[in-house]
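Let us walk through a complete example step by step. Step one is to write down the protein sequence. Step two is to encode the small molecule, adenosine-5'-triphosphate, as a SMILES string so that its atoms and bonds are unambiguous. Step three, shown after the inputs, is the structure prediction itself.
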Amino acid sequence: MITLFNRKEKKLIAVLVVFSIINSSVNFLFIQLVNDLISIIVSDQVPVVSDFLIKFLVVIVVFFTTRIAISRGIIHLSQSTYWKIRLNIVKKVITASYSVISKKKAEIYSTLTHDVENITQLSFVLVNIFTATLTALACMAYLFFLSSTIFFITLFNFLIAYSIYHFVSKKGTAAFIVSRKLEENFLKLLNETLHGSKEINMDRKIGRKILSPYITGVSKKCEHSSKDAYNAFLNSQVAGQIFSFVMIMLILLFGQTYLGATSSSVIKFTFTLLYIMEPVGNATNSIPVISKAFISWDKIKTLGVTFGDEKSNGIEKVKNRFCQNNFNTIELKKVSYEYPESNFKIGPINLELQKGDTVFIYGENGSGKTTLMNTIIALSKLQKGELIRDQNLVNESNIEEYRSLFSVVFNDYFLFDQFYNIDKIVLEEAYYYLHLFEMSDKVSISSNGFSSTDLSTGQRKRLALIYAILVKKPIIVLDEWAADQDPYFRQKFYHDIVPLLNSKGFTIVAITHDDKYYHCCDKLFEMSNGKLLKKEKTLQV
Ligand SMILES: Nc1ncnc2c1ncn2[C@@H]1O[C@H](COP(=O)(O)OP(=O)(O)OP(=O)(O)O)[C@@H](O)[C@H]1O
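Step three: the predicted structure of the complex.
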């Protein structure tokens, strides 16, 4: 759960509350000052200008000083909250499991942009509402003092107006919830458009189709529900204003004759009502912002719950352990994994990896090789069976440490801009691998990262493997790494690089379709429809 404010900020909020009370009080004093002047003027007297000017000056100075202080405080609070929530979400994204993140990308984007912004807007609005409420309360007390009968009639009208507002604004909130959901769909489609821009360039039909009916459809629906929401709020605002005008007219027409008020009270009453109409109107205009902020806050909380808190310390736990962390054996005992979405299942699988092994896994497309790999490296949560490292069961408490044994080049790998997980790069070693992978004429290496990643697909994959080696985790896992390499380099990889890495102490697990090189491993397995079969490597040569 996100803690919105620290102790210092809570103190600042307390100060802002005090300033708001002072601000509302002087606001109220101003109307009293004006009312006093009106009384003097309607009774054909001449006011003592210096008296009123001094009071006016005090009121105006205090009003604007507190107003500026409140605004600055709010800007500080809103911006620090904005970035705190954003960082908190990113932190959760970094520590959450891959399976959760891969399904929640659009939701994360819309929360990071849309929802956090809505919460920030709320802080600006809350101050207006708070000061308007205080001013209104002070004015209401003043009205009571002027005429209790008219005060109760006014109060009754306010309550009716509020009930109508409350009823109608429920409709508005419901429409905002719909539009928030649609916003997520919009971002999902936008994401597809950005990632598929090459395909769209090649075939504009995809672009046209995704634009209409999909993106246009979602944006139209979103536009309609937002309009419905704002209209609902607008209707209730208008209803509130009509009530106020009716009230003022009734008091002016019947205040003296039927309600027993003096002419001076009626004027003061009317003036006070007119005066509070603006801040109260502004405050009610801000209700949609509050409504959206509540919806967004719910979203942020739900997203936090989805991520789960159990791994929130994962990053800190494995810090700096990469080079020291090692293993002797890893065992999979009766391990199974099933995708609920497709009902595809692997297992039960028994497998033993020993330090220094070179293991190749081959098999038909869709036979479950990547699923098995994700299970071995504990990227997928274990559903059935046991994962054992050196006689120790891998569980929630040691899973991060277990994962840190593996350096993986996924089939759909991502090459980061910088060497985030290498504390100190040994340039000599880095250049040795750059030469080995025949990339030294294309790329140079600094302590931050590779000089460029704008390379061919095969070349980028070579960098990904160099990076995986430099991280120095004991097990290198490769998912069809050689598939993008030319025949010459593929041979170099299987004949020279794999044995070299092996001689340097790396354990290698590779998924491969290169049957020509199946003999280059110690242990060969076939994955067949979710089952792992041990194979004699000579059979495949
Ligand atoms: N994210 C997913 N959600 C649901 N089912 C999935 C998912 N990923 C894979 N599958 C199912 O698991 C099966 C095996 O997929 P997997 O990626 O493990 O195969 P593979 O042997 O690595 O194939 P390839 O050689 O094509 O990479 C697929 O046929 C599919 O039915």
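Step four is interpretation. The CA atoms of residues 444 and 451 lie 5 Å apart.
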